[in-house]
Batch of 2 targets.
Target 1
Amino acid sequence: MCAGLPMNTLEAYPCGSDHTPSPMASRVPMEAEVLLDSPSARLTAVAVSMRAGHAIAFLGDSKGNLHKVFLGPDGKTKQYATIPIQPDVPINGDLLLDHTQENLYVMTSTKVEKRPVAECSQHMDCGSCLSTRDPYCGWCVLEGRCVQSSECAGAELAGQWLWSFDAAQQCLSVQSLRPSNISREEKRDVFLSVPGLPRMENGGAYTCVFGEHESPAIVMDTRVTCSSPDTVNIPPIHPGEDHVKTTLSLRFREVTVAAHEFTFYDCRAVQELSQSAPCRGCVSSRWGCNWCVQQHACSHKDTCERGVVIYNEHPRDAPVHGGTYDRHDDDCPSRSARSRARRPHSAPDRTHHPEATAQLPVPLSTMAAPTSPPVTTPSRPVAPPSGDDNSTRVQTEVSDPEPNPPETAGEAEGGEGAEESRSHPAPPWPRPP
């Protein structure tokens, strides 16, 4: 049959003559669209493997390189790897796959090399595995290995084998973490969201690991709940620091499926590092620390044993209770701190002021109705200091009127005495003649 072909057949149609073991020729020429062009080097060898319905071509060139090309079902090609075999020595046309289709024999004029069709094991992490875009490889999530699908025990289950060549595949990661930091003195639940988390089969279970401390993970679809460790299991905070960072990992057996940084802070360390202005340093810290005025302490709690709480400028969760604000020897000077403190309307200020008592010997009971100035009795007259306005200042500090002052007995009855007291309030002391 070949003898009947025109003499210039192989020159006109060189398909197979220079890069396949058996040259091909035909009386009827075949034309096709070019899938891959190699302008820098002439292709000298070709072998094709089928894997899971996908075609992968291995191409040798005249410069001694082996190219791996994915042939897509839509006619598109993607060259995903180039391996040097022997520089500037053409690859022989005898490019053959073994009977398992797992190994490729590459030959030159002076060399024969056996290479695996896939080299997945050289990629040690998920990111490296997926970035190769090798159609043979994928990340086995619960085994923590870059392998072919046939080597991953749960490859047929959703989410357990991530195909490297699929650009839409992403390594598992913690999408959200709430909260991302807590006090080392508290124990609470931490909530994670891990999209694409594989479901457990055959009684398997995930675990949460804070540093080296393990605890069972509660999994609902892609939402995970972890319990923070006890204080004794939290890494110590170094001197001069107010926090320590650790890694929160979600594991299956010894394999880390996803991980995220987690922080434990110490409000007492925050106070120690802000000795010149401990209150200001406490409430302005980036952690959830609040200032207990009477205890003179920086605490992660939203309540104090007694007295006043000044809340942090950057609260994570709004407090659900009220509080009061009062002056203190080491009070925070900023106005913003005052606005964050809360005063319940049901608790009027009964603060005793020694300075006011010394200058105005007025019983505190006269201050029950803040809108009416205190009245002195005739038995203890007090003359105002001459040329001094301190009495007015002290009176203003002592009265501290409330938003809704209680009615006096006369006002409740609506008598004339009540009306007169409202029209002509008694002066704080007898007027001079």
Note: The longest helix spans residues 390-399.
Target 2
Amino acid sequence: MIIAGNSFSVQQKPAKPMVWMVWVILLPMIDVATVAAQDKSAASTQEGNAETTPPLPSLLEPRPVVETATWNYPQEEGDSLALPKPGRAGAAPAAKGIPVGGVRIMPEVALTSRWDDNIYKTATNLRADVMTQLKSVVKVLHKWAQNQADLSYSATVRRYREVQSEDNVDQQLSINNKFSPSRLVDVELGYTHSLENDERGTPGKAATQFNAGTPTGPNTWLQNSFKETLRLKMRRLTSELKLEQSDRTSQNNGQSNMDRQWFDNGLLFKWAVSPKTSLLLDMGRKETAYVHSPRMDSTENRILTGVTWKGTAQTESQIKVGLNDKILANDPGKSNTNATWEAGIVWQPFSRTKVNLSSKRNAQDSEDSNESFIATTYQAGVDHTLSSTWRLMLGWELINNAYTTGKQEDFTTGRVGMEYRLSNQFTLATEVVNKIKTSTVSGGGFDSHAIQLSLTGSM
């Protein structure tokens, strides 16, 4: 069902000292007798103890929807905090699914038509075109007791009216399993196999390529990812171990020099100091190995501390601040230590209005010119429900990329959207987007305007 590509193979690497150190830290925390006793009294403890660990902020957790916005927010390897995505239009209504035997099938679909006056996202060779996008998702979900398993497949087909070289198809197959051996332990296992195409003008991605003055089409990548999470929930302390192994390979346009594998190990401690406030300590190590560009191999060590709190029923926030140390294996002279942070706040000043503010700063590798950069992102958005059927969305984003070579890039995106709920299953939305890029490289910027209409539905 999914397009085949290069096989997934992992290079032999030495045992990760970070992983063994994590288990040395975690194992003494697990006392068998204590766990058994707490299992029996967990329900009564939660009811009688006001200092029980509070749940994760619900407003900060993104809901699973079919996203029809054709401009994608960058997703870096090893993301540990799901920041709110302000101003996104065209969310599919919540799917209830169709019960079939012991499983529930949840189909979702989104049809989008977009006009863009600069599809190549360049300062010259401006070209306008209309793109039609069809995205379909089928998810099979099975729940039993406190456990859950799901299998999902999605396909996104994009077709341009005039410039057929830009036509592309994204596909993704994912398998996830969540189970709780006891009330104090949660385990999550996931695997994702995806074929994806870079969108023109996305920060950190390769710019449009020309062959005799003709673009060669977007870069295509095949990626495999395994993710494992172990969560231990004590009385006030929650410990979370996250492991990720991924492989990303180029499928066209001579981008094989960016083929790479990465191993990301993270450990998060969350200490509930009150029912509404928790302190955070986040540590991690990421090793990246390039198949054809060993000079880009690197090791990153990060440590962040922060707090998550729910000030009122209308406000939820989370912030983490720390340091990230990146060491290039074959060029230690270019290694550096930088401040890093992840922050998000959701404020609901009125019952029908929600305000999202977020910021993030971290180190990334460019797929454009074999160099690293520091990405600093600021986002703001407002969602306002006008009535039971109408919703207004405003979004703004600024991304600054500071490269190790001294190059600077700024991406500014503004969007205005309206959404109309046709029924419990279908939503109609329209959106206007303006995206501007400025660069210290001559001719490296662009200005584009787009307007789109979307119809989404779910069952």
Note: Residues 32-48 form the longest helix (17 residues).
